[in-house]
Design a protein that fits this description.
The chain is an alpha/beta fold. The protein has two domains: 225 residues, 3-Layer(aba) Sandwich (Aspartate Aminotransferase, domain 2), CATH 3.40.640; 121 residues, Alpha-Beta Complex (Aspartate Aminotransferase, domain 1), CATH 3.90.1150. It contains eleven helices and 14 strands. The longest helix has 18 residues. It is globular. The two termini are 36 Å apart. GO terms for molecular function: pyridoxal phosphate binding; transaminase activity. Belongs to the DegT/DnrJ/EryC1 family. This is DegT/DnrJ/EryC1/StrS family aminotransferase. InterPro entries: DegT/StrS_aminotransferase, PyrdxlP-dep_Trfase, PyrdxlP-dep_Trfase_major.
Length: 364
């Protein structure tokens, strides 16, 4: 079985060495020494001022909304994982969907301004597949209309834009460290900001709003454990190697796929990419389904990242038409991509894809 991704696991002895320290200290969670060490090393790796390591990439979106006092309308993307919209709905906000660009699938800044009302408080955009949004245009709109900018940067660890980590942009950026990501802690996520006061607020939000027996604010349990931090400490030094290995697999696909019949989203100028995903776009949903079925018949599992377009979710508040997102979401498929995917498997996957897209369906 070849899955769309495969989690990197460090040497077991390296991980168990951290576990021995946990056993000796009997400090399992609650802002432990490994968590603090990981936070420090991630801040250094990313070049960011404040970073809070939390339980997952969804709760940090909720924390961002709460910390910025966002309760009304938020202009957001329909092309993302459902967590982006769910966080807004969970916090009682109203998602207002702006369509995406047809080239990179990130939110289209040209569609944002006409959606701004007196109730708009923020823009929540996703850096799709680890590729940067049009950051300067979004920031200019936000400053003009006094809006906050929250980036769902779940895919971006290791990607940079104009020499800075993509996580360093916006009022707040969040990331996921789920086991499927380029950098992972099994389960986990982080929230990043340059604002000192906001960082202090997020610190308390992460841990019930108190420090020892002194209470300062509301809060939830978004703490992560020493066991997850230990995994992060093992994986973090390997990230440059993992990205290089992913880049190699990426280039094998580029060399083998028939781009006369399929396309890929374009990379934003100025991005140093982390090769988080390998999305391909077909001419129709029928072709996508034919390709997917052909791969699954050979025990190869691609994924429809992202489907459906989030503005069409039955439980969403807003159903603004987003024709680009609605169209792309029907036709995009992510092929297997992970550091140790063998070249012969890429050969086989590409051959199956090329053969399936070459089938010409006669009109009825």
């Amino acid at each position: 079985m070849i899955n769309v991704t495969k989690s990197y696991l460090p040497d077991l002895e390296e991980y168990t060495n951290y576990l021995k320290g946990i056993w000796e200290r009997v400090h399992l969670t609650n802002d432990g020494p490994l968590l603090r060490e990981l936070e420090g090393k991630m801040k250094e790796f990313l070049g960011v001022k404040h970073l809070k390591f939390c339980t997952n990439g969804t709760v940090v979106l909720q924390m961002a909304l709460k910390a910025l006092d966002i309760t009304k309308e938020v202009i957001t993307t329909p092309f993302s994982y459902v967590a982006t919209t769910n966080a807004l709905l969970w916090e009682g906000c109203t998602p207002v969907f702006a369509d995406i660009r047809p080239d990179d699938f990130c939110i289209d800044p040209g569609k944002i301004e006409s959606l701004i009302t007196e109730n708009t408080q923020a823009i929540m955009a996703t850096h799709v597949y680890g590729n940067a949004c049009r950051i300067e245009q979004i920031q200019a709109i936000a400053e003009k209309h006094n809006l906050k900018v929250i980036y769902d940067a779940a895919h971006t660890f290791g990607s940079s834009y104009n020499g800075r980590s993509i996580l360093s942009y916006g009022d707040v950026s969040t990331c996921s460290f789920h086991a499927t990501k380029v950098f992972h802690t099994v389960e986990g996520g982080c929230i990043v900001t340059d604002d000192d006061a906001l960082a202090e607020k997020l610190h308390f939000y992460r841990s019930f709003g108190h420090r020892n027996d002194d209470y300062y604010s509301i809060g939830i349990n978004a703490k992560n454990s020493e066991f997850h931090a230990a995994m992060g400490l093992c994986v973090l030094p390997k990230v440059p190697h993992l990205i290089a290995a992913r880049k190699q697999v990426f280039s094998w696909y580029d060399d083998r796929l028939n781009f006369e019949r399929i396309t890929r989203p374009t990379l934003t100028s100025g991005v140093d990419y982390n090769y988080a995903y390998y999305p391909v776009v077909f001419d129709s949903e029928a072709t996508l389904l034919r390709v997917s079925d052909a791969l699954k018949a050979q025990e190869i599992v691609p994924r429809r990242y992202f489907y459906p377009s989030l503005n069409t979710l039955p439980f969403s508040i807003g159903h603004e038409p987003c024709p680009v997102s609605e169209d792309v979401s029907l036709r995009v498929l992510c092929l297997p991509l992970y550091p140790d995917l063998p070249e012969e498997d890429v050969d086989r996957i590409a051959a199956i894809v090329n053969e399936a897209v070459a089938v010409i369906t006669e009109p009825v």
